[in-house]
């Protein structure tokens, strides 16, 4: 079935295709982002921000920039009063300065108020380290309570995204800046000179004034500022230099600001919008992953695909519900673990629990919010957001409020609440998977060893509770905490950048939760596959033992076949109900539980009792032996793929194969003898947390999303 062009899945696949094509081209040295003020897409922002690449100004955009600058100068020469050019700023706009070019420099300087730990300039307090000189003692000996630089400085990717969005805004050709000034900003991107920008200090009212002022200051080569420049070091970091030295090292001439140019650089939503674009990229992929994980959970819990039948969405046709149900239904194709009910079962839940049965109704609104956020952010990164603006055709200078970033706040608040929604679903799914009361026959704590001797996954249950609690806190709105600022002038401020920052925090927490759940799912699917292998091995022998024991008592072949069928069905049911028991007692208990069924189906006689006693002993002994053999063999060569649906097969193969995270029990994570570990490998002994971290790192790098996207491509075919 064709999907609407604006559906979540269509947006996802289109974005991923552009994104991966651009990443390949960057690595081949053959991609340049053409900036024209109107056609910047999400993929280009992410690639320029995180993977490198260069930018070129579109020739038509350059002509528009020049025309705007000329029109602005013409208006200024007529003596017109223009805000921020020959007036003061904000609540001081009633002042009329004479030095209009110096005014732009003063604006930039005045906005350098952020707290920024600078590793290039830290010098300890002077004085002897003595008990009497407590200030020096504290300053020189205290361990930091966090990473000072990371706690106060934006990551490079945020700043690169911000510079690109600001460049695109200026390329709109209505800001009155000279072409050389706009080209200087493009040079920072192309030469990979990245200003160090404080992480806090913006209320995103008159745009992101202070963060953008640090970019403007580096463009001027201010020695009071610093920037990353040069090649990356082995640990992934880059050298930090004073702005003047960084420009010189990169071969970039510092700029001298003309009238309005300082204001044009700092007055806008570029930082909020740039970070929001990075947020949206991750959010799309997390929402996609959640649908795949839900399908895997259905399989791991031996649930049904009935909950995702198209009829249900047809009669409640919310677009997100229709889409998520269709995706999950497709992901479950060919699964041998999915239970397809005919309505005749007894002594079992007729329907799945809420965490999977209502998943499409739960995920659906999040997908709708993400598509709405996508539209909002895409428009914003292609907008002109400074003030005032020059209408070249109408020969007008207009004063307005395009810098108000409330639309960005609207987008990222939806995304952050969506993180909590998805996290709640995944955390409940994971908990139900680990809990033997809800996991339909899996052992407690997903252990492959004896249940009384291993509690491996119990800690993960606690982990997901902790992560989901944090997501719940982070879901609280930021936008309701507005404070009036700047002499009462900025009485409405969007707090967009603050909200975007916390949304990235939420996405990171959700990534950890998804990593834990994915690993638990792979463990559960292996346990299901191992159990099926055992049943395959035991089925023939069970039939032979039963035939040998009761063929002399039930001479009617049909009666014997009926007994075998009912005994086998009851055995599988009791196998699921006794997963909490150690195998040494489990199979004896199961065979004893089948006695009433035998007694109801056979004549009452001493011969029957004798046959039943022999049958019980043989079946329990052989079942225990085969279970032990199967478990040992499966642990040495685990492979659940033959039993899995299309999506689960891809994800399981990635985790077990590409990431090398094993199906594990106590033996795999026992503390090794340190003598057996290499002193120089840098690797630690394995732990549950280390395995989860491996999956988490693949999410954060984006590697895990490749098989996720393949699942969606399969579903779209």
UniProtKB/TrEMBL annotation:
Keyword Lyase set for record: yes
Gene Ontology CC, one term: cytoplasm
Enzyme class: lyase
Keyword Lyase: yes
Any one GO molecular-function label of the UniProt entry: phenylalanine ammonia-lyase activity
InterPro entries linked to this entry: Aromatic_Lyase (IPR001106), Fumarase/histidase_N (IPR024083), L-Aspartase-like (IPR008948), Phe/His_NH3-lyase_AS (IPR022313), Phe_NH3-lyase (IPR005922), Phe_NH3-lyase_shielding_dom_sf (IPR023144)
Enzyme Commission number, as recorded: 4.3.1.24
Domain of life assignment: Eukaryota
Keywords of this entry: Lyase
Positions of transmembrane segments: none
Family statement: Belongs to the PAL/histidase family.
Name of the protein in its database record: Phenylalanine ammonia-lyase
Organism classification: Eukaryota, Fungi, Dikarya, Ascomycota, Pezizomycotina
């Amino acid at each position: 079935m064709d999907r609407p062009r604006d559906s979540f899945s269509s947006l996802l696949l289109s974005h991923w295709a552009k994104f991966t094509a651009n990443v390949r081209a960057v690595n081949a040295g053959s991609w340049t982002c053409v900036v024209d003020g109107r056609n910047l897409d999400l993929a280009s922002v992410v690639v320029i921000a995180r993977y490198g690449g260069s930018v070129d100004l579109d020739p038509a955009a350059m002509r528009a920039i020049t025309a705007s600058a000329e029109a602005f100068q013409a208006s200024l020469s007529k003596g017109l009063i223009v805000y921020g050019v020959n007036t003061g700023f904000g609540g001081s706009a009633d002042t009329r300065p004479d030095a209009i070019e110096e005014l732009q420099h003063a604006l930039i300087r005045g906005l350098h108020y952020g707290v920024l730990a600078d590793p290039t300039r830290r010098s300890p307090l002077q004085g002897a380290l003595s008990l009497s000189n407590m200030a020096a003692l504290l300053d020189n000996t205290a361990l930091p309570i966090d990473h000072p630089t990371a706690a106060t400085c934006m990551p490079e990717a945020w700043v690169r995204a911000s510079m690109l969005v600001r460049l695109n805004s200026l390329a709109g050709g209505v800001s009155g800046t000279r072409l050389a000034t706009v080209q200087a900003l493009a040079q920072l991107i192309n030469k990979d000179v990245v200003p160090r920008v404080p992480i806090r200090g913006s209320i995103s009212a008159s745009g992101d004034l202070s963060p953008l002022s640090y970019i403007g200051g580096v463009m001027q080569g201010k020695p009071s500022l610093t920037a990353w420049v040069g090649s990356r070091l082995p640990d992934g970091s880059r050298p930090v230099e004073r702005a003047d030295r960084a420009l010189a090292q990169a071969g970039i001439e510092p700029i001298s600001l003309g009238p309005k140019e300082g204001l044009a650089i700092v007055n806008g939503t570029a930082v909020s919008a740039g970070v929001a674009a990075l947020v949206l990229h991750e959010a799309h992929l997390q929402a996609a992953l959640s649908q795949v994980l839900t399908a895997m959970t259905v399989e791991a819990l031996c649930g049904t695909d009935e909950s995702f039948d198209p009829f249900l969405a047809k009669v409640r046709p919310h677009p997100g519900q229709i889409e998520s149900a269709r995706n999950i239904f497709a992901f479950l194709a060919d699964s041998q673990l999915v239970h397809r009910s005919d309505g005749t079962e007894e002594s079992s839940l007729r329907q799945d629990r809420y965490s999977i049965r209502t998943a499409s109704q739960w995920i659906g609104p999040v997908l709708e919010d993400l598509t709405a956020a996508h539209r909002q952010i895409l428009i914003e990164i292609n907008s002109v957001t400074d003030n005032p603006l020059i209408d070249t055709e109408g020969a007008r200078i207009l004063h307005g409020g395009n810098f108000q970033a409330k639309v960005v706040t609207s987008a990222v608040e939806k995304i952050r609440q969506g993180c909590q929604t998805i996290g709640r679903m995944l955390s409940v799914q994971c908990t139900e998977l680990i809990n033997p009361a809800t996991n339909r026959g899996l052992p407690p704590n997903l252990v492959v060893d004896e249940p009384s001797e291993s509690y491996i996954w119990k800690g993960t249950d606690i982990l997901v509770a902790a992560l989901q609690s944090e997501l719940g806190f982070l879901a609280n709105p930021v936008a309701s905490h507005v404070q009036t600022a700047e002499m009462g002038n900025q009485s409405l401020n969007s707090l967009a950048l603050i909200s975007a920052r916390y949304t990235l925090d939420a996405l990171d927490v959700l990534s950890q939760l998804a990593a834990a759940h994915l690993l638990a799912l792979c463990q559960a699917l292996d346990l299901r596959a191992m159990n099926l292998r055992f049943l395959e091995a035991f089925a023939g022998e069970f039939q032979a033992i039963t035939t040998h024991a009761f063929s002399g008592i039930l001479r009617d072949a049909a009666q014997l076949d009926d007994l075998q069928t009912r005994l086998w069905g009851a055995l599988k049911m009791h196998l699921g109900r006794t997963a909490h028991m150690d195998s040494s007692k489990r199979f004896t208990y199961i065979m004893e539980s089948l006695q009433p069924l035998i007694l109801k189906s056979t004549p009452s006689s001493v011969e029957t009792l004798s046959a039943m006693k022999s049958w019980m002993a043989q079946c329990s002994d052989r079942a225990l032996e085969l279970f032990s053999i199967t478990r040992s063999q499966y642990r040495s060569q685990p492979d659940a793929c033959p039993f899995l649906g299309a999506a689960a097969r891809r994800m399981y193969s990635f985790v077990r194969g590409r990431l090398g995270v094993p199906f594990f029990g106590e033996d795999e994570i026992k503390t090794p003898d340190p003598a057996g570990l290499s002193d120089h490998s840098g690797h630690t002994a394995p732990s549950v947390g280390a395995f989860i971290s491996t999956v988490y790192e693949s999410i954060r790098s984006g590697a895990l999303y490749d098989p996720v996207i393949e699942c969606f491509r399969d579903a779209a075919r």
